[in-house]
What does this fold into?
Amino acid sequence: MILPVGKLPTDILARMLKAYTSFDERVKVGPAIGEDAAAVDMGDRYLLLKTDPITFVAEDIGTYTVRINANDIATMGGKPMWLLAAILLPEHHTTKEVVEEIFRQLSSACKEIGVFLCGGHTEITPGIDRVIVVGAMIGEVRKDGIITTGGARTGDDLLLTKAIAVEGISVIARRKGNELEAVFGTAFVQRCRGFIERPGISILKDAEIAGRYGDIHSMHDPTEGGLATGLNEVALAADVGLLVEEECIPVYPECQALCMYYGLDPLGLIASGSLLIAVNPRDTEKVLDALNNKGVPATKIGKIMPKEHGLKIKKRGEILELPVFDRDEITKILD
It folds into this structure.
């Protein structure tokens, strides 16, 4: 069976992790569906380890690499500290200027958040048609400050920062710009391209504020497969059910327009830039107020339920199964 583009199907990945991964007693968070990074006991703190490739875009790829990898350190309650990057460059299209621009982006994005670019690998690779960068971010967290995706508890409120889908909007505009300008105009496309900066693809501020003002049990960065996949990963990691309300899920107008034009479902569109938070309900309003007052829009979208409840979404008063996306909606138009 030939597998489709995108994340490995959950059942296959779960089987691979069970059969082939291992860790010693110092690995406190190991490979598991939904967990954003590994955590290794270093005595007085945990070392957080994350790797993530950037494959959908070539433009601003250095910036994407740093921010996407840093996000998954932040969801664990940690501070990103060091980055390694493997830069794979296509044959026949690579110039010194292209290489320098990638390094410039990596350096600039690292300096913005106090991360050190400390190693990696660079090569011109046969068989690829655009630049691919694989980032490996390393961070730290106090032992009493670590947060895992699997920490969500029955009764928690589910919050979402910003709206969906920041990364999807930016990537579509960058990959389909000429086509979209003819339909929506140059100003619309430029605004969509700029979503990487405003509202921004980083969730470091979101995570820091939430952790400071509430009893946070879980944070998760919904990436490939969109918000629906992110919710599914939280439920799998924590062995719980959940209920979300469609009308409470904020969707950017630009996302609505692009999804309507291409026939995509916003719930399955790559959604880096938003943060899913499972919080003790006694602190929900305090966390929402802190985020909104500090310039990070946040909304309550649902609740963690017992496992037997399943994964549900309320649409126009009807309780339905949360949709499952075998691959990200964006792949329908970027194949």
Summary: The longest helix spans residues 96-113. The chain has a mean pLDDT of 94.
